[in-house]
Hints:
Helix content is 78%, strand content 0%. The chain has helices at 22-42, 49-56, 60-88, 90-110, 114-128, 132-142, 148-177, 179-200, 220-230, 232-263, 268-295, 300-320, 327-337, 340-351, 360-389, 393-397, 399-435.
Amino acid sequence: MTAGTPAKAPPPRLPGDPPGGSRAVAMWSIGVAVYFLAVTYRTSLGVAGIEAAERFDVNASALSTFSLLQLMVYAGMQIPVGLLVDRWGTRKVLSLGIVLFTTGQFGFALADSYPLALGCRALLGCGDAMTFISVLRLGARWFPARRGPLVAQLAGLIGMAGNLVTTLVLARVLAAFGWTPTFAGSALGGLLALLLVLSLLRDAPPGHQPDTAHHGQTGYVRRQIAAAWAEPGTRLGMWVHFTAQFPAMVFMLLWGLPFLVEAQGLDVGTAGILLTVVVLSNMVVGLVYGQTIARHHRARAPLALGTVGATALLWAVVLAWPGRAPTEVLVTLCLVLGACGPASMIGFDFARPANPPERQGTASGIVNMGGFTASMTTLLAIGVLLDLTGDDYRVAFSAVFVLQALGVSQVLRLRGRAQRRERERTVTSRVEAVHVPAQT
């Protein structure tokens, strides 16, 4: 800015916008800390797949069932959790989630049979399902709407730091101390998280608590789901999440390490470094995407579709490469996979302006269900194809392209409709802003 040039005024707050500030950061940070812990537990199997196969004496299909069941529970819980968050509030839902995923992680540490271990991962998935939607709602309640894209991307970024702990710390602890001490020790973090939530967390700033009078009315659940689904922005957000998230999720959650070790001939240490590259790339790209979308809302669809295209291209190069792919190609693949998480978060930026505050949890649940449904489907497909083809990773990982094609077709179909509807809502909000003075 040059001398004499007036400073650009910040965008006006919409009617009902919360004030933000340091207390908002503190409340949001508690919620994000819980999400960080949940991601650490969720991805812990990603560095223990080989040990799990030996401990429970299972093949590839049975091993994939661990993550498949966990994601099946997670995906199936998204709409119920969204309804619970809208009805109970963040604090209660997060507390229940912590109890469930901590119990699941501790039980997994002690499990000595495959069925018991499956039950523990399902319990973990149920608790994990309650965290991210709660954090999104917490951000919407404590921060102005214009901060939404950046706050959501930051939440995803910090969650990926939990994945970083898994690849950098948990893998080494597992190698040094073994199965039970590693998983049982990590479960202690849940006790601290529960104490923080119960003693300090508040759902919303004073004067911004949601109206809950209608929650007890007959047909509330049906109306919430129907109204959220009726918005093209909600459906578009779900398909963006579906299409963008799953390649990296499948890679990090279970099949990345076996693919790099068994199909590409890397040692476990080098494969672990490449998994870390995915996490670091995710964190950097998340910041870039969040800032870009906050300033240029029209960049949402190009960023999402561009990421999907780059992911498909790099997977095609790696799978078509004769023999083992060069290290620099694998590094590039991991860098591009790191953009999948931030690209999937764009789905929430389509659903958020399409729904009023009292429906944000339900809409977020619908969106979040997309990526985890795709991940669940791909995890199963890869495990089955590996068993049918005698561990042919080229054939197995080709399942990625089928789901990407389906998702892109739906994104293109809904994009124009959602944008028109969003413009209509924006005009309405601006008219209201003229007649309702902004809060100070």
